[in-house]
Q: What sequence folds into this?
């Protein structure tokens, strides 16, 4: 069995990746997660009795914990999802972002290098973000792998630093690394502080749906299962030392995103059927309110994913409307079953 150490595997993207890879059947997964507020091991409860899955609660900044995992197992791949990732939280408390995203990545690189000296086929895949590139104007070209880094928040600055460490460990120590920079993800298991799950759950609870500023900020949206598929393809086909941008080809303003969600909910679970909606409204759109914009709010992110498309022959399978429908159906199933 090919053994993968997944860090942050109880979080949003990490748990989706574990679901994706376990379906392959020929992989064994060790999930290392510290179970902070955004980590939930119930995301992986389908695998509790699966001999090819094991969970270890631990911090990626702890050398002894990570080293022990490597010493007790022949690790073929390390896929690093573990990160603090919420911009608002990074503004309020940047220190924890520096600790996890920078020192945690350093610690993983340190132990991986020790392992790499033994197993020359070992690979370290570092999962990062398009936010390291900064902000684009409305007519600017999409981010390519050649864009210079211009992070604008403590979160993106900490991720940029971790990316640079990964690059340095390749060029200095010849560690087998790959880095991916993805656009905004959405889908099942996402902690409800991010725009899409927060919008869905607020709507289902009949609460105000808040949007920063005028809602004109633009993001490229990537369905999480497409992201997992891209990571798997990089893991198995990607060129060591390279950086790959992963995008969903779905640029939307925040207001467009919220309106599409509301329209889908109107169709799938109309307000007339939702007992949580106490206001007399005809559409979930009537719950939309605008609030003061947050500091350092980047205007636009846009990914040019032509490199991974040409080199690895990968493209997203979902467009935004198909992906958001799958996402809403998942939240409806889990939200309604827990009422």
A:
């Amino acid at each position: 069995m090919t053994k993968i150490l997944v860090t942050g595997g109880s979080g949003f993207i990490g748990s989706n990746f574990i679901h994706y890879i376990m379906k392959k059947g020929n992989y064994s997964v060790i999930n290392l997660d510290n179970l902070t507020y955004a980590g939930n091991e119930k995301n992986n409860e389908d695998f509790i009795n699966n001999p090819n899955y094991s969970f270890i609660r631990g911090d990626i900044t702890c050398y002894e914990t990570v080293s022990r995992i490597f010493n007790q197992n022949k690790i073929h791949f390390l896929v690093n999802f573990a990160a603090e990732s919420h911009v608002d939280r990074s503004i309020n408390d940047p220190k924890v972002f520096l600790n996890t995203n920078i020192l945690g990545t350093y610690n993983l690189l340190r132990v991986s290098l020790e392992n790499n000296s033994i197993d020359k086929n070992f690979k370290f895949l570092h999962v990062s973000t398009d936010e390291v590139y900064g902000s684009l104007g409305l007519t600017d070209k999409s981010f390519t792998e050649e864009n210079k880094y211009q992070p604008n928040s403590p979160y993106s600055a900490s991720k940029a630093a971790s990316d640079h460490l990964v690059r340095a460990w390749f060029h200095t120590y010849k560690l087998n690394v790959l880095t991916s920079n993805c656009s905004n993800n959405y889908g099942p298991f996402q902690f409800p502080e991010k725009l899409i799950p927060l919008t869905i759950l607020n709507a289902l609870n009949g609460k105000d749906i808040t949007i920063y500023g005028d809602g004109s900020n633009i993001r490229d949206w990537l369905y999480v299962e497409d992201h997992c598929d891209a990571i798997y393809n990089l893991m198995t086909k990607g060129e060591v030392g390279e950086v790959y941008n992963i995008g969903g080809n779905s640029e939307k303003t925040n207001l467009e995103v919220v309106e599409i969600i509301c329209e889908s909910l109107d169709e799938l679970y109309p307000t007339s059927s939702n007992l949580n909606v106490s206001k007399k409204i005809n559409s979930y759109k009537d719950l939309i309110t605008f609030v003061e914009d947050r500091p350092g709010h980047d205007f636009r992110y846009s990914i040019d994913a032509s490199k991974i498309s040409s080199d690895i022959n990968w493209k997203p399978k979902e467009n935004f409307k198909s992906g958001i429908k799958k996402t809403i159906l998942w939240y409806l199933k889990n939200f309604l079953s827990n009422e």
User: Anything to note?
Assistant: The radius of gyration is 20 Å. The first strand starts at residue 2 and ends at 7. The chain is about 40% helix and 15% strand.
